[in-house]
Amino acid sequence: MASSHESDESDNPPSPPKKNVYKDPDDGRQRFLLELEFVQCLANPTYINYLAQNRYFEDEAFIGYLKYLQYWQRPEYIKFIMYPHCLFFLELLQNPNFRNAMAHPANKELAHRQQFYFWKNYRNNRLKHILPRPLPEPSAAPPISAPVPPPPVPPTTLAAAPPGAVPSPAASALSPMQYAIPSGSALPKSDPRNSGVDRRKRKKDG
Which intervals carry biased composition (Pro residues) (predicted)? Predict the structure, then answer.
């Protein structure tokens, strides 16, 4: 009986003890926020320069952490990113040459200046390729003006002149004789030379 029991134990070796797997008490919410905040800090070239000068990029564990953070480029996580430049710099930080270059202040200023120009001109440059260009307008021909008719000639009371004759400007004016009193009118004609003689005769007769 003892031998049979020993053979059963040899056939089934004891299982190794289970490892305690760490589980976040808040289901990873705190870890999510911390990693999101750190990734977005990488959008600042001054912060990257700070990490380089304090030799964070010489730590292999920190380099592995930067590789791990690339999961933020996936669609289900990228929607939480408010500063997209952080993902651009996160990709550049995978290159050791870039990590070493960012330790110099001149390179930090260059990266910061190029980032500013990108923010300043990106929208206008993008609209140039998105918006359709308007077609050139055809040059309109000047409108043709209709000929102006000559002014009408006013009617005159003069007799018709023979063909080829040029009327004189004085002919259209009325002659002084037209204003004379016609003959046979009842208006008396007074002569200033005879008015004084008539008065003297009247005095003598009276």
Answer: 138-155
- Distance of alpha carbon 79 from the chain centroid: 29
> At residue 46, what is the residue type?
T
Question: In angstroms, rounded to a whole number, what is the distance separating the alpha carbons of residues 162 and 133?
Answer: 72
- What amino acid occupies position 89? F
Sign of CA dihedral 121, 124, 130, 132: negative
pLDDT tens over the chain, length 206 residues: 555 555 555 556 566 566 666 676 777 789 999 999 999 999 999 999 999 999 999 999 999 999 999 999 999 999 999 998 999 999 999 999 999 999 999 998 988 888 888 878 776 766 666 666 666 777 665 666 666 667 776 665 545 555 555 555 544 555 555 545 555 555 555 555 555 555 665 655 55
Among 4, 72, 67, which residue's Cα sits nearest to residue 34? 72
d(CA 93, CA 90): 5
DSSP string, 52-112: HHTTGGG-HHHHHHHHHGGGGGSHHHHTT-S-THHHHHHHHTTSHHHHHHTTSHHHHHHHH
CATH number of 29-130: 1.10.10.1340
Dihedral sign for Cα 74, 77, 80, 86, please.
negative
Show me where the domains of the chain are located.
29-130
Residue type, 174: L
